[in-house]
Write a structure and sequence with these properties.
The protein has three domains: 2-59, Alpha-Beta Plaits (2-Layer Sandwich), CATH 3.30.70; 69-136, GMP Synthetase, Chain A, domain 3, CATH 3.30.300.110; 157-326, Rossmann fold, CATH 3.40.50.150. By secondary structure, it is α/β, with parallel strands linked by helices. The longest helix has 13 residues, at 93-105. The chain is globular, with a radius of gyration of 21 Å. The model has no long low-confidence stretch (mean pLDDT 93). The chain has a seven-stranded mixed beta sheet with strand order 13-12-11-14-15-17-16. Helix content is 23%, strand content 35%.
Length: 328
Amino acid sequence: MNVPCVRVPREEGEATRRTLADADLLDHGHDIVVDDGVLYIPVADATAVPTDYDVVDYDAPAREGRTLPEDVLGFEPSYERLGDIVIVDEDDPERAQAIADALVESDIRAETVVNRASKIKGELRVRDWDVLVGDDTETVHREYGFEFLLDIASVYFSPRLATERHRVVEQVHEGEHVFDMFAGVGPFAIPCAARGAEVVGVDLNEAAVEYLRENARRNKVADRVTAVHGDVRDVAADYTDWADRVIMNLPHSADDFLDTAVAVAGDDCVLHLYDIQHEDDPFGPGLAAVRAAAEPEYEVEVLGEQTVRSYAPHEYNVCLDVRLTRRA
């Protein structure tokens, strides 16, 4: 079956394999393949592979003798990985525990297995977890060559948004001023800084801000990241007319902060507004809200409309990219 693989010339294969192994990115369930002088190295998480590697889908054979959770259970369970934590989402506690036990029996590496015990709640955007295996909810998540230390019990983080974060980060230019209004542990802020931007990341969750500072140090961009704990509406007063780019990743209520985004925007500013809307008009309400906040001081130009993922029946998580240009 086709799986994500790093494709490298054969003479670079061993060095590449060691690098991927050190980053815990190797997929041990499939064999490395040599084909016409090219090595295909299966990886467990394509989004976490550094961008200077070529990642392709390739038909690598499954490794003999590997035990998977479905081999133990008799059905294929649904789960996702976040660093060395495996997350399941089951309403039935007995089924959740059975999946956790099967994960332990299998060859899937899992230091901790948790089950979602609540929806995301409160202004700090955290959820409750039932810990089924292990006891450590702190982990290191790797994404597009960056690593993020975080504790799922005290901060919000979604590995599912890696591709969308990368899409935005790829637009950032050296020397930009980036204002990340709801920065969390830094999955937007740190890659933006790595591209040469000066970044201000704000969050109401004090634990998230501490992880943001630590992650800036881990990824060697601390000199370009200012992490601020507080309500972004208060913090913005220190950054009036400062930003070349504003990131608003708070989909359920980001539009409530558009006046703040406009206040920090410079003369020419790109705004990334995340939203949850009905499929009938996923981008219209967000654009109307931007226009209401920015006009007539700014001209509003739509740069892009991105459907990030399905959120609920007939509802989508979307991102509206707009340019605000101050009128003379």
